Amino acid sequence: MIRTENLPELMETDTPNDLSSLVVRAGRRSYFFDVKATKGKDLFLSITESKRISHDDEEPRYEKHKIFLYKEDFEAFVEALQSSLKFIESKQGCDGYRSAESVRISKNNSKGSE
Q1: 25: which strand partners?
Q2: What whole-number distance in Å separates Cα of residue 94 and Cα of residue 24?
Q3: Burial class (CB in 10 A: 0-12, 13-18, 19+), 25
Q4: pLDDT by residue (tens digit) across 11-63?
Q5: What are the φ and ψ backbone dihedral angles of 23, each rounded to 5 degrees?
Q6: Percentage of residues in the chain having pLDDT higher than 70
Q7: Would you place residue 104 in the very low, low, confident or very high pLDDT band (cuts 50, 70, 90)?
């Protein structure tokens, strides 16, 4: 099941080309969903995955990956994402794949050992 509770709120920004931003924190990774505008006033979505790759005793370093998603691709992207998520949900807990519940339990157990 896709969890939608506790989603962060979309924050509006003050810069002309950066309209809003949403951050999803996931352990050492953060996902940034930024709504931006081109010079021609077309809106697009910039999705950034940022992963901390330095160790605790080093100055923080991050590896970043970006996807720029334009309005003409929104519908196909959402359909492909939903289809992929449904496929994952159907496979969790069968054929040797871990269930969503076992992933949550594993994450909770590792938090207690840090």
Answers
A1: 30
A2: 28
A3: exposed
A4: 666 677 888 999 999 888 999 999 999 989 899 999 999 998 877 777 888 99
A5: -120, 130
A6: 76
A7: low
Distance from C-alpha of 23 to C-alpha of 9, rounded to nearest angstrom: 8
Full 3-state SS string of 42-70: CEEEEEEEEEECCCCCCCCCEEEEEEEEE
Single pTM value for the model: 0.70
Tokens representing 98 are 């871990």
What phi, psi does 31 have (nearest 5°)? -120, 130
Assign 15 to helix, strand or coil.
coil
Using the predicted structure, report yes or no on whether residue 72 has a pLDDT greater than 60.
yes
DSSP string across 69-100: EEGGGHHHHHHHHHHHHHHHHHHTTSTTPPPH
Instruction: Supply the mean pLDDT for the chain.
Output: 82
Q: Hey, what are 51's tokens?
A: 């992963």
Find residue 5's DSSP bridge partners.
Answer: none
